[in-house]
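In response to reviewer comment 3 from the previous cycle, which asked for concrete evidence that the modeling workflow produces usable outputs, we include below a single protein chain processed end to end. The sequence was submitted unchanged, and the resulting structure tokens are shown without manual editing.
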Amino acid sequence: MSPSEAEGSTFKPPSLPSPPTALSQSYTYHSPKPTTDGPYILGVDEAGRGPVLGPLVYGVAYCPVSYQEKLDGMGFADSKTLTHDTRANLLASLSLDPESLGWSVRVISPQAISSGMLRHPPINLNQQSQEATVLLIREVLGSGIKLSEVYVDALGPSIPYQAYLSSLFPTLSITVKPKADSIYTIVGAASVAAKVTRDAWIEGWIYEESRPCQTSDMVENAQCSAASENVAAVKGSDIPLGSGYPSDPKTQAWLKSALEPTFGFPSLVRFSWATVKIMLDKEGHEVQWADETQTSLIKAFQSGSSADKGRSPLAKELGIRSVSDL
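The workflow returned the following structure tokens.
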């Protein structure tokens, strides 16, 4: 799609799957590999760190060092300062010179964000962001692109992060700075790729909770089809999402309308956000597991006294167990 076609229309970037499907897993998209000789510069930025709704998207853009002057004249900047149509036009323009311009995104699903942050030990958002950044750089290098310089929008303190990335990629000149998308045009291009991809996911979100069930059995499939006709729409699906930020009144209203007391929220929501945890505690149904009343069993697991009774100190220390116990 050309920039003129992107403007004023519902622009669907090539980084989204076709045909449209629900976002249940994280994935990576790469544009066609540029063919112009290097070395190349690469920029890294993200969209969606703060919202309680939708994916976190990391983007990279890259071009030959000799292409920088031309790129500077294309209008790339911090995507948050650009209009929706301008961002769509700019992303479309990244595809107009495939010999010299390339871009990629890593789309981290809300489920992946939440499961990482809620596991033990947790993988916090900074760690997940670092992993996405490293993955994208490695895959661009792996495609055969000769990189020389990498510019990254900062995650917290710049110096430790720059040192970390430099240790992983010692042959590259890496610069990490706050507001890098406003300083380096190549980072602004990455910002646009990430923002347009995330916005397109949110605007065209498909609720996997509303999909009809499917089985391999013909009889069960017929029952599924009949049942799906009576399935109500996902709660809140007819209400505007707002910006997705917890402080947005529209997003707060959507969260209240979408909460199902027994099953919680649709997979669009990041369950690890404090806003969601508080709402579930206040409005959700309390769940009691069957073994919560078995006090003796709980104590046995907590103390290990039942399993260790009568065993020698050496066996306890080495974790030796009888075959019959296993």
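Strands lie at 27-30, 40-47, 56-64, 102-108, 147-153, 173-177. We consider this sufficient to address the reviewer's concern, and the full set will be provided in the supplementary archive.
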